[in-house]
């Protein structure tokens, strides 16, 4: 029966199986997960793993990281209803229409295919390149393997052009349960027409990318961008189990972006760490299904997989000749078309079966290469490597003789086919270049950073606010506002003393720090306090409010608490700060003991230079022209080995999402601009965006979600499924309407039938 349910009766596990329910008592996704897999307590990982293991086992297609995220975030039901069992609003889905150049649709996108009659709801579960020049037998021209989007035989697309690429998308047409799936007769009719889906139930589209950089994004970054733009209404729907805004602690764009990437990283880490799953790239399969495939003697079973592996291994082996020297041979084989050539495979490659077959085949090839080859080199002299993981289900490179090539990771997707057709003539040998030492460039905007802001100027009360600078920390001084100098005590001594009282909001200072006698010093016609002993946890950018005492003999400084602690990169703070100063001065090589780039590794040099020299926004976002990075680090163009080390560091930082790529322009004076200006040449930028994450510290000092003091865990507000016949209280309905307004739904929405809303709280264990 219904009633006032502050603690409603709920369904927490699926049919008593021990598999958590996304709409259960505890949300599957937690605030700790927004900081990435490494930051998540093992207990929370285990709950998510049990659910994702069950999702992978239940679905017919391999489960991509983005699809696994969807399952946990949008509430995929394991009882057969899929997403149809959740209160998702189908009107929020982007619509695909026929006959147009399609927008970017990454794996994980939930779409509505406009068929002219009944709408077709689907989740994109697999995606690959579908270049028209790949033959039906799987033969791939060398230049296609690893080629960037929009490239052709002659080279890359022109700078500024929007690249196009033909792609094959595999939609799961049954992801939303029987009620939203078309009947077999309706699907057969759509496949026969081949207007919206082809005969295999797939979508082949020409995708228009907004820029070359957008086409090169990894799967998770592309999906995060899709969710925060095209599918934003769906992402920020109040009907999901727990909203991203709740997990991120707000709706600031930077917070949402950082939290979403952290959640995707957590899901990927959980899939990779599961003992019952195998992964191919971002696609997860159960080990049981792979073993069953190897034992299967029918089409695309173990015999066909062994035949495929043998064909790839011997593809480049030339026919034996009695006389003459055999020239090197390289062959590129695409897995997808090759599978279609096996007898009886046609029906098995329809729908999501194609995705399953391709992933199983690639796992089989990878196992053979790792088991029977030495870094891809086989006993017959052939070297087998994965060359392109995206095009046509995966392109494998067979080269003979393989001994002449440098060894490497055979599964690294190196793109040697494209590179082999673009090689420039070798440069003449020259004397070894001398390596340079990094330089310490002065801050170009030093004078404009952290200006003092006068808050009040009265006869007996002068108050101003100014951020702490790195130079203040190193040398123990602080500038005074000009309006305070007229009332400072005069003394015959060149360095009169005043009393400095420090208050660090919410913290207890040492007696020597809380009250100090400091000197007044005049420098360049302005006065400052010197000999200050700064507390150890003060940092560049910390905002100080300074007040002059009534008699001018006492100066009081205090910090101000934020509403809740946040983490900016590696810096955690609960106090107000200046983001511009923090970006510029809280960098590698800089602390209260000094400021130097000497001894930093390439990653640290890249971070220091981008933050020190990049275009700076009000929120602390720094953007640097990528082409000038080496000269900015070393003062002039360094040795080639140093440039290569910096580029490698940039690539690593991009992959780890510590830095991001962006597009800008350069004016006639050589000055970079962002966003790019019309009529100016386009240039690539390296961007540092300070990641601001909410840090929740429950009373008692417990770590978030961990085993800290008193065992306290923060639980974000979330939807919870009710047992049949139960209903939420009016109070919970009102709380949910307020929750919707905080997400930008002006009028608030009503709780969906069968659910209640649990407000954020602290849980004891």
Write the layout of secondary structure elements.
Layout: H1 42-58, E1 63-64, H2 65-74, E2 95-96, E3 110-113, E4 120-129, E5 164-172, H3 184-193, E6 203-208, H4 212-215, H5 219-228, H6 232-235, H7 244-248, H8 253-273, E7 277-280, E8 283-286, H9 287-295, H10 302-314, E9 329-334, H11 335-340, H12 353-372, E10 383-388, E11 395-400, H13 416-420, E12 453-458, E13 461-467, H14 470-475, E14 477-479, E15 497-503, H15 511-514, E16 515-523, E17 526-530, E18 543-548, E19 554-558, E20 561-568, E21 571-575, H16 579-585, E22 590-591, E23 594-595, H17 602-613, E24 615-616, E25 622-625, H18 629-634, H19 640-655, E26 660-666, E27 672-673, E28 682-688, E29 692-694, E30 712-715, E31 718-721, H20 730-742, E32 755-758, E33 761-764
Parallel strand pairs: 2-3, 15-19
Antiparallel strand pairs: 1-8, 3-4, 4-5, 5-6, 7-8, 9-11, 10-11, 12-13, 13-18, 14-17, 15-16, 16-17, 18-19, 20-21, 20-29, 22-23, 24-25, 25-28, 26-27, 26-28, 30-33, 31-32
Helix pairs in contact: 1-8, 2-8, 5-8, 10-12, 17-19
Quick structural overview:
It is built from 20 helices and 33 strands.
What does this structure look like?
This protein has an 8-stranded mixed beta sheet. It has a 5-stranded mixed beta sheet with strand order 2-3-4-5-6, with no helix packed on it. The longest helix has 21 residues. With about 775 residues, it is an alpha+beta fold. It is globular and about 95 Å long. The protein has 20 helices and 33 strands.
């Amino acid at each position: 029966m219904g009633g006032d349910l502050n603690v409603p009766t709920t369904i927490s596990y699926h049919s008593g199986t021990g598999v958590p329910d996304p709409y259960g008592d505890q949300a599957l996704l937690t605030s700790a997960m927004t900081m990435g897999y490494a930051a998540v307590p093992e207990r929370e990982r285990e709950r998510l793993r049990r659910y994702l293991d069950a999702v992978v086992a239940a679905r017919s297609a391999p489960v991509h990281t983005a699809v696994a995220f969807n399952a946990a975030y949008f509430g995929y039901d394991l009882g057969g209803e899929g997403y149809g069992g959740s209160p998702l609003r189908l009107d929020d889905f982007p619509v695909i229409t026929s006959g147009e150049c399609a927008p970017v649709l990454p794996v994980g996108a939930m779409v509505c295919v406009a068929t002219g009659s009944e709408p077709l709801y689907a989740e994109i579960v697999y995606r690959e390149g579908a270049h028209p020049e790949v033959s039906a037998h799987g033969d791939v021209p060398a230049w296609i393997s690893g080629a960037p989007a929009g490239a052709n035989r002659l080279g890359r697309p022109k700078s500024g052009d929007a690249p196009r690429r033909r792609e094959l998308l595999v939609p799961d047409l049954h992801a939303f349960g029987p009620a939203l799936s078309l009947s077999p007769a309706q699907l057969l009719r759509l496949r026969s027409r081949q207007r919206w889906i082809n005969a295999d139930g797939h979508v082949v589209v020409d995708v228009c990318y907004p820029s070359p950089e957008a086409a090169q994004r990894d799967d998770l970054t592309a999906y995060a961008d899709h969710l925060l733009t095209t599918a934003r209404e769906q992402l920020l729907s109040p009907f999901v189990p727990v909203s991203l805004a709740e997990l991120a602690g707000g709706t600031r764009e930077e917070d949402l972006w950082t939290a979403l990437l952290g959640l995707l990283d957590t899901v990927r880490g959980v899939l990779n760490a599961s003992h019952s799953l195998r992964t191919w790239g971002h696609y997860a399969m159960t080990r049981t299904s792979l073993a069953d495939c190897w034992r299967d003697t029918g089409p695309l079973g173990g015999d066909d997989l062994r035949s495929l592996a043998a064909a790839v291994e011997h593809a480049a082996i030339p026919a034996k000749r009695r006389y003459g020297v055999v020239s090197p041979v390289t062959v590129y084989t695409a897995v997808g078309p090759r599978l279609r050539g096996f007898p009886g495979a046609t029906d098995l490659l329809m729908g999501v079966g194609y995705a399953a077959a391709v992933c199983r085949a690639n796992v089989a090839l990878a196992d053979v290469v790792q088991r029977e080859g030495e870094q891809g080199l086989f006993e017959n002299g052939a070297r087998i490597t994965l060359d392109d993981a995206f095009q046509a289900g995966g392109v494998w490179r067979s080269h003979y003789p393989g001994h002449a090539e440098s060894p490497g990771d055979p599964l690294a997707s190196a793109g040697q086919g494209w590179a082999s057709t673009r090689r420039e003539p070798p440069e003449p040998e020259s004397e070894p270049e001398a390596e340079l030492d990094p330089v310490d460039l002065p801050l170009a905007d030093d004078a404009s950073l952290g200006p003092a802001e006068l808050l009040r100027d009265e006869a007996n009360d002068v108050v101003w606010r100014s951020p702490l600078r790195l130079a203040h920390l190193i040398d123990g001084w602080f500038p005074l506002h000009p309006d305070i100098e007229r009332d400072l005590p005069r003394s015959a001594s060149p360095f009169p003393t005043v009393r400095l009282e420090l208050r660090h909001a919410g913290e207890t200072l040492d007696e020597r720090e809380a009250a100090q006698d400091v000197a007044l010093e005049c420098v360049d016609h302005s006065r400052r306090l010197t000999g200050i002993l700064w507390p150890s946890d003060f940092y560049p950018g910390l905002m100080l409010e300074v007040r002059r005492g009534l008699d001018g003999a006492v100066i009081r400084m205090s910090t101000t608490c934020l509403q809740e602690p946040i983490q900016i990169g590696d810096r955690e703070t609960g106090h107000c700060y200046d983001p511009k100063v923090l970006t510029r001065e809280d960098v590698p090589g800089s602390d209260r003991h000094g400021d130097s780039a000497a001894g930093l590794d390439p990653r640290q040099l890249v971070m220091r230079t981008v933050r020190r020299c990049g275009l700076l926004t009000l929120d602390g976002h720094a953007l640097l022209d990528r082409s000038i990075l080496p000269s900015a680090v070393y003062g002039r163009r360094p040795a080639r080995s140093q440039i290569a080390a910096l580029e490698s560091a940039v690539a690593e930082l991009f992959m780890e999402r510590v830095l991001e790529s962006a597009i800008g322009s350069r004016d006639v004076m050589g000055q970079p601009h962002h966003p790019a200006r019309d009529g100016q040449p386009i240039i690539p930028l390296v961007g540092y965006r300070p990641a601001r994450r909410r840090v929740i510290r429950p009373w008692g000092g417990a770590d978030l979600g961990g085993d800290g003091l008193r065992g306290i865990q923060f639980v974000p507000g979330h939807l919870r499924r009710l047992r049949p016949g139960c209903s939420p209280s009016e109070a919970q309905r009102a709380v949910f309407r307020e929750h919707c307004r905080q997400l930008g739904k002006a009028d608030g929405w009503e709780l969906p039938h069968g659910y209640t809303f649990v407000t954020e709280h602290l849980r004891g264990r």
